[in-house]
Design brief:
30% of the residues lie in helices and 24% in strands. It is α/β, with parallel strands linked by helices. It binds phosphoenolpyruvate and manganese (II) ion (MN).
Length: 658
C-alpha cells in the first residue's frame, strides 16, 4: 500500500501517519515517487482505508497490485542504484542505472595467498567488487565448508590491497552481526533465499545485500524475499539470477534469461546474473554472461580461480584469469549496444578507483589536484535535460554528476575555458551523419582546451508524446533535423505528419510536454521521455540501428600536459590521441606525415580535412591515432611529424571508447 502525502504535509502529520500504520502492523518506509512524497506500507496489517485516507497530510491511498510493495516499480519508477563500499578507504561502487558492474573472485576463500592472488588478477581485468565465500553452504557435509571468519579477514585484506569492496555469503543469522563490520555487502545464497529469519536479520543491519534467486523459486517468491530485506531496514538490495532447476541436467542449472527483463519491469532494484552457478561448465560461462548483459542485466558475478584445477569448490565452473579478461573485454564492447558503460578499474599501474559510469563518487578521488576536477565543478553540455549529450554525460560521470546546460557548442568551450565548468562534453561524429564540423573548428579556436576522454553512445530514437496520445492522434512531430533524417523510413510511412525542426531533440520533447496535447509528438531519446513525463509510443524508430554518436570530453589544458585527467582514464595509459596539422604545399607531404606514424606501428583511425579559415583552398588535417604501448614510439612519431608539418597542434591523449 502506498500513502501519498499532500504537498502541505508537515513532519508532525507524517509522524502521525507513520505511527498509525505501525500500530496496525505495517512496516513503513519513506519514498519519493516523482514529485510526490510517499510512505510505503508493507505487511499483513489490517487498516480501514477510508479512515487512513482522511488523516491530515494524506493526499490519497493506493493499494499496489503486487504483494511486494517496497520492491515494486509501482512504488518507485526510477532504477535504484545500490552503492557498495565507500568506507574505510574502499571506493564506492554503484550497481544499477547506466552501468555494468562486475563482481569476481573465487567460489571460496581457500587461503590468504589464494584470495590475494585472485583479487589482484580480477582487478587487473577490471572487476570492481571482490567475491568469495568464507562460509560455504555445501550439498555434502563432508565437502570443504570454508574458512569462516578467518577467511573473511583474508578477503578484507585482499579487498583493501586492491581497493575493492567485498561481498560474501552469510549462511546463518547467528554470524551476521560479526560479519557486518568486515564485509561491504552480504550475499544471501540461493539455498537461503527463503530463510526469512536470515533475511530479517540481514535487512536490519542496513548493509547492501545481494539476493540470489532460489533454485526453485518463482519470480514472485524471489521478490517477496527482497521485500523481507527492504521491510527490515535496508534499501540496498541487488537481485541475482543464478539459474533455476529444470528437467535439463546437462548444465548445473538453467539460466532464466527472460527473468532479467521481467524482474526489471516489476521492480526498481538492480538485477545481476551469476553465469557460473547457472551453467556450471567453465566453457559455457562467458557466453551465458554476455547473453545476460545483452538481456539487460546490470552486472555479473563470476567465479574466477588462478588454478581452477586445484580449487576446493566449484573448480569446473571457475574461469581461468585469462578467460575472465576476455569476458571483460567482450562486455566492454557489448555495453554500448545496450546503452550502458562497463564500470571498470584502470588497466595498468596504481590507482584503485573504478572508472567510467561511476562518475561523481567512484573515480573522482583519482583526479584530485586538477583545478578542473568535475568532482568540484559541473560538466557542460549543449541542450536540454534528457538530450543525448546529457545521457552521454551520465554514462561517463554518473547520475549524480553536477551539470550545466548551455545553448551552443561554443558556450561549452567558453564555460570550460573560463572555469565555470570543470569539463565539457561535445559530439564530434555520428556514424550515419558524419562529423560535427563546428566542434572540430572550435578546437582550433581554443588552443587551451584539450581532449581528455571519449564515449560512443548508441542513438535509439523514440516517438514520444503526452499521455493519451496514440499513433493515430498525432499530426505534428518535432525534433532536431538529424532526428528526422535518421528516422526517415518511419516518417515516410506517415506522409501526413507535419514536421517541425527544433534546436535539439530533448527541447522538442520539452515543448510537447509543455503543451500536453495528443496531436504533437517528438522524436527523441528514451531519457527525454523520462525527464518530461512523456510516453513512448514507439521505440527504436531510427532507420539504421547501427547509429552511434561519438562524444569527446574536453577540459582546460594544464601547464605541463594535455589537460585534466578524466576519471575514465584513471591511471590508465592513454590508447588514443588526436592531432591537427597542416602540411607544406608540395608532392608527398601528407604521405610523409602518415609514414612517420605507419613506420612506428601507429594506427590511424580517422583523417579529416577542414578548410583553414581565412586561407581559401588550404586545409588542416585532423587525425585520430592509436598510442602504441612501446615506450617512446609515440613521442618519436610526434617529434618527426612536427618536423614535417607547418602547423601542428596536439589536441589530447585519452582512452579510446570500445
Ligand atoms: C556462491 O555464489 O558462492 C553460491 C554458493 O551461489 P548460489 O547460492 O547461487 O548457489
Ligand atoms: Mn560456487
Amino acid at each position: 500500500m502506498i500513502v501519498v502525502l499532500s504537498r502541505g504535509a508537515g513532519p508532525g502529520d507524517k509522524e502521525r501517519i507513520r505511527a498509525y500504520l505501525r500500530d496496525r502492523g505495517f512496516a513503513v518506509r519513506d519514498q519519493r515517487f516523482g514529485e510526490d512524497e510517499i510512505l510505503g506500507a508493507a505487511g499483513k496489517g489490517a487498516v480501514d482505508l477510508r479512515e487512513l485516507g482522511i488523516l491530515p497530510g494524506v493526499e490519497r491511498v493506493a493499494a499496489t497490485s503486487k504483494p511486494y510493495e517496497l520492491a515494486s516499480r509501482e512504488t518507485r519508477a526510477e532504477d535504484t542504484i545500490v552503492t557498495v563500499g565507500g568506507t574505510g578507504g574502499i571506493p564506492p561502487v554503484p550497481i544499477g542505472g547506466a552501468r555494468i558492474t562486475v563482481i569476481a573472485g573465487p567460489c571460496a576463500v581457500e587461503s590468504r595467498e589464494q584470495i590475494l592472488e585472485t583479487a589482484r588478477r580480477v582487478r587487473e581485468s577490471g572487476a570492481v567488487i571482490l567475491r568469495g565465500g568464507a562460509y560455504k553452504p555445501r550439498s555434502s557435509p563432508y565437502a570443504f565448508q570454508g574458512l569462516g571468519m578467518k577467511g573473511l579477514e583474508y578477503m578484507k585484506e585482499a579487498g583493501e590491497a586492491c581497493g575493492m569492496p567485498i561481498v560474501t555469503e552469510v549462511v546463518s543469522p547467528e554470524f551476521a552481526g560479526d560479519m557486518k563490520d568486515v564485509t561491504d555487502m552480504f550475499q544471501i545464497g540461493a539455498r537461503n533465499m527463503q530463510n526469512f529469519e536470515l533475511l530479517k536479520k540481514v535487512g536490519a543491519l542496513g548493509k547492501p545485500a545481494l539476493l540470489k534467486r532460489g533454485p526453485s523459486a518463482t519470480i514472485e517468491e524471489w521478490l517477496l524475499s527482497a521485500e523481507y530485506l527492504l521491510a527490515s531496514g535496508t534499501r540496498d538490495v541487488v537481485l541475482c539470477e543464478r539459474g533455476i532447476r529444470t528437467f535439463e541436467t546437462y548444465t548445473r542449472n538453467t539460466l532464466d534469461i527472460s527473468a532479467i527483463s521481467v524482474v526489471k519491469g516489476l521492480s526498481h532494484l538492480p538485477v545481476i546474473v551469476d553465469p557460473s552457478h547457472a551453467v556450471g561448465i567453465r566453457a559455457k560461462v562467458a557466453s551465458a554472461g554476455l547473453a545476460a548483459i545483452a538481456a539487460g542485466a546490470d552486472g555479473l558475478t563470476v567465479e574466477v580461480h588462478p588454478r581452477p584445477e586445484e580449487a576446493l569448490s566449484d573448480g569446473p565452473q571457475s574461469l581461468f584469469p585469462g578467460q575472465f579478461e576476455k569476458l571483460m573485454r567482450d562486455i566492454e564492447a557489448l555495453a554500448p549496444v545496450v546503452g550502458k558503460e562497463l564500470l571498470r578499474t584502470p588497466r595498468a599501474g596504481g590507482g584503485s578507483a573504478p572508472r567510467r559510469g561511476g562518475g561523481g563518487t567512484a573515480g573522482a578521488g583519482e583526479t584530485k589536484g586538477g583545478p578542473e576536477s568535475p568532482a568540484e565543478k559541473p560538466i557542460a553540455f549543449n541542450g536540454e535535460r534528457g538530450a543525448f549529450a546529457d545521457q552521454a554525460l551520465t554514462r561517463l560521470f554518473g547520475e549524480e554528476a553536477p551539470r550545466v546546460q548551455v545553448h551552443s557548442f561554443k558556450e561549452i568551450f567558453d564555460a570550460v575555458l573560463e572555469g565555470s565548468a570543470g569539463a565539457g562534453i561535445v559530439p564530434v561524429e555520428n556514424s550515419l551523419a558524419g562529423s560535427v564540423h563546428e566542434n572540430y573548428d572550435l578546437f582550433l579556436r581554443y588552443p587551451d582546451i584539450a581532449i581528455t576522454g571519449e564515449l560512443k553512445l548508441r542513438i535509439v530514437h523514440c516517438l514520444i508524446a503526452a499521455p493519451g496520445a496514440t499513433l493515430d492522434s498525432i499530426t505534428l512531430v518535432r525534433s532536431h533535423p538529424q532526428g528526422f533524417a535518421q528516422c526517415r523510413e518511419f516518417l515516410d510511412q506517415r506522409p501526413h505528419w507535419r514536421l517541425e525542426a527544433h534546436n535539439d531533440t530533448a527541447g522538442a520533447a520539452a515543448s510537447v510536454a509543455r503543451e500536453g496535447t495528443i496531436e504533437a509528438a517528438a522524436i527523441a531519446g528514451e531519457a527525454a521521455a523520462r525527464v518530461y513525463g512523456l510516453r513512448i509510443l514507439k521505440e527504436g524508430i531510427e532507420t539504421n540501428p547501427l547509429n552511434y554518436t561519438r562524444f569527446l570530453v574536453i577540459s582546460r589544458r594544464t601547464a605541463g600536459g594535455g589537460g585534466w585527467t578524466h576519471p575514465s582514464l584513471g591511471s590508465d595509459r592513454p590508447t588514443k590521441a588526436s592531432v591537427v596539422f597542416s602540411v607544406p604545399d608540395k608532392p608527398g607531404s601528407l604521405f610523409l606525415c602518415l609514414k612517420s606514424m605507419a613506420d612506428r606501428g601507429i594506427n590511424l583511425s580517422k583523417l579529416e580535412s577542414r578548410p583553414i579559415p581565412g586561407k581559401p583552398w588550404e586545409y588542416q588535417f585532423y587525425a585520430d591515432v592509436s598510442v602504441p604501448e612501446t615506450e617512446g614510439a609515440f613521442d618519436a612519431a610526434l617529434g618527426e611529424l612536427k618536423t614535417r608539418t607547418e602547423d601542428f597542434r596536439f589536441l589530447g591523449a585519452y582512452r579510446a571508447a570500445p
